[in-house]
Specification:
Blueprint lengths: L7 E5 L2 H11 L3 E8 L2 E7 L4 E7 L15 E4 L3 H14 L2 E2 L5 E2 L7 E6 L5 E6 L20
Parallel strand pairs: 1-4, 5-9
Antiparallel strand pairs: 2-3, 3-4, 6-8, 7-8, 8-9
Length: 147
């Protein structure tokens, strides 16, 4: 396959609030922004490439019952880094889907944290290994299903 994910664009209700969350809590770098009242947006990167774009175009929060984005999964370098993000998110007051680091499925070495952004968009920060022995919230379904 020749395609790979480029950046992800999210509609948000309040650009300033979302920008503060993704930049100040998750550590994305502001690459560019549009400040015209009816055309507000922010481009966020990781220091090397564009990763996420925020568009102030939503009139309501995330709705998991509608077609579209299920969740945005981000990968960290280590399980220790996942725990650092968890600490920052808790200090921010983020809403978590599960308590602490959880495995992707029973016996998996992969896992992470699952939480919501200010508009309720479901997010995951995980690692491919390092979570072995972490609890599994739902034994009959993948953790990233947000069941």
């Amino acid at each position: 396959m020749t395609l790979r994910t480029g950046h992800t664009g999210l509609n948000v209700t309040d650009l300033d609030r979302s920008l503060a969350f993704y930049r100040d809590v998750l550590g994305f770098v502001l690459v560019g922004e549009g400040k015209e009242e009816d055309r507000r947006y922010a481009f966020l990167g990781d220091g090397e490439r564009l990763v996420l774009t925020l568009w102030q175009q939503a009139s309501g929060g995330y709705d998991g019952a509608r077609a579209g984005l299920h969740h945005l999964a981000l990968e960290a370098d280590s399980i220790d880094r996942v725990r650092q993000y968890e600490e920052a998110l808790r200090a921010y007051g983020a809403d978590f889907a599960y308590e602490g680091v959880v495995a992707h499925r029973e016996g998996a070495a992969s896992g992470g944290i699952f939480f919501h952004d200010p508009d309720g968009t479901r997010l995951e920060i995980s690692v491919p290994s390092g979570a072995k022995g972490a609890p599994v919230p739902n034994e009959s379904a993948p953790t990233c299903g947000f069941f």
